[in-house]
Amino acid sequence: MYIHKTYHLVEPDLPITTYKKMLSSLCKINLRRANKFNILSVYGALSCIENTPISNNIGIYLATEYGPVESLKNVVEQVNNPQGIVMPFDFLGINTSASFYIAQALNASGKHMVLTSHNLSFEKALQLAYFDLMHHEVEDVLIGRVDASLAFIENHQNYITPQSAESFDQSYWFYANRNSQNALAKIEKIEEFSSLETMREIYGTQMPTSFYALLTQDTNTKDRLLHIAKDDNGKCIVIEMEKL
Amino acid sequence: MQKCYITAHALVCSLGENEVAIVDTIRTLNQDNYEAYIAKILHQYPYYHLNKTFTSQREKFYAVIETVVYNCIEQAQLSLEEQKDLAIFIGSTSMGISMNEEVNALYKNEQTPLEFNHLEYGVLGTYIETLTHSNHKALLFSTACTSSANALCYASKLIINQHIKRALVLGIELFNQSTFDGFSSLMLLSKNKIYRPFDQNSDGLILGEACSALILESEPKTEHDFYYKGSKNICDIYSETTSNPSGEPIFKTMDEALQNAEVTLSDIDVIKAHATGSENNNTSEANAIALLFKKYHCTTPITALKPLLGHTLGASGTNEIALSLSCIKQGFIPQTLGFQNAADGVVFTPLTKPMECKGRRVSILFNFVAFGGNTTSIVLSNK
């Protein structure tokens, strides 16, 4: 699996209008009533593959931990309001529209899905994308990790691990296929461990690292890089890659 | 190549909490008494509710999960060590939104300091990891009505390719006002309150709640265990809420699932249609089935299970598979209750009586179609 393109956006809690404006410069898709999560998803995905030829059979794997929180809050508040009405776009907003909008914007009829695995959502999504690509279920893959800031939720730290962590608007995306030519990096292996101890028996003492930072850091030689992510209970995933 | 068998299945739904109760209820139903039955169960609310009452949404959520998970582990006779090998795959549309509605109501009445029960989706997976002692990190699929079907496909393929030893696939959809009101706002719910997929009097869908689990392993536990033969998942980009009415994308999905399973339509004993009863689904899926019949120059029986369970959305994959396996174990495939006369463009008559299959091995093509164009077909067989 060869990574060819990357894109990342990390911002504080910016208004949705800002992102809609940014998106309108990229495509004409009508997302007037979409929530921030969906806009962040589509904007990040399209930015990642801007000017890149992709196949019609592309797999789109969107990892998230909180999903479309804004629509969730709207809908839940409406149902607890005697005069409340659940609006169709809010309801659809909490029902996995994001990866569909990306597929529609790309006119791609391969597979698309939204995935969650707590602190390992991105790594598990990458694992499925790797599997599909290596087994020729898809021709290329677009893997993203998207979450909108929770800052608008009262006491939002209570829903974040660790509670001290700041909540940002974030949209990270990677485009990969089986072609090594002009690739940025090659994913060699993805391994899952039930505990940090078992992982350390193989990889030694390693600290969790950002996948994006590893991929984009400046190195002079072909490096073997390890991305390690763990959950609260020590379950972890190691992604071994080579910078090209 | 290694196979992937379904060695245990469990379902909790409006029909009952265990296989015996569920199958016994289905056996009593026929086209003549269906309307009286559905009038009775939808009497208070147009929804297929679980029969059991719970003190809170939280209790209900975790209790139904425990019931199906423990039931499956017991059926498959998994040791503690084997449970640790269970990779966990979950499919749901609404996840735990019912708990958020409950907590939010308390918050509005100043009875709790927090606005929501949880915001992170991962809590459900972490709970099942603890319940099963699994060494794996649970993965939740959110692809609307194909969620648990897609979870099953990946779990099966990962076992076949020896990436994992065994898996627990869970589908859950419990009543929540958000989903009910959401479907109502889209004007997709039946007004007549009689579920009639593919029928000329079909006027929409009726939602239901249910939770199911399947254990997947590389070796069968009994000689009749079903195994995964192949599947296909594609995206129909026609519209966010409706399938392409031509039926082409659904046809393509079914056709490629057959090819991946290395079978033809004549090898399939029955197609379990998605059959939501919505006007669009009645048309698009019926057209897709007509295209399939045309391509393979043959027909095969069709059935729909939502008149029994209600539409259980993201959980409908594992729910309808678990229900089918329970009925087949007792020697029959359920008929499409509520069907009387074919709607325009429906070129087939779904099963109007149970299809007896006692002592026979069968292959089934399962169809699932979701909002967001997510379309999945799966071939399971015990032949």
Q: Regarding quaternary structure, how should these chains be classified?
A: heterodimer
What gyration radius of chain A follows from the Cα positions, in whole Å? 18 Å
Helix content of chain B: 25-40%
- What is the CATH architecture term of chain B? 3-Layer(aba) Sandwich
Provide mean pLDDT of chain B, rounded: 96
The largest chain-to-chain contact, stated as pair and per-chain residue counts, equals:
A-B, 63 and 59 residues
H/I helix tally of chain A: 8
End-to-end distance of chain A: 12 Å
Give the overall silhouette of chain B: globular
Q: Supply the CATH architecture of the largest domain in chain A.
A: 3-Layer(aba) Sandwich
| Mean pLDDT across residues of chain A | 90
Give the low-pLDDT segments of chain A: none
Structural class of chain B: alpha/beta
Strand order of the largest sheet of chain A: 3-2-4-5-1-6-8-7
What is the count of distinct domains of chain A?
Answer: 2
Please write the string of helix (H) and strand (E) elements of chain A.
EHHEHHHEHEEEHHEE
Q: In terms of per-residue confidence, which ranges of chain B show pLDDT below 50 for 5 or more consecutive residues?
A: none
The fourth-level CATH homologous superfamily of the largest domain in chain A is: Thiolase/Chalcone synthase
- The strand count of chain A comes to 8
Rg of chain B (C-alpha, Å) = 20 Å
The first-level CATH class name of chain B:
Alpha Beta
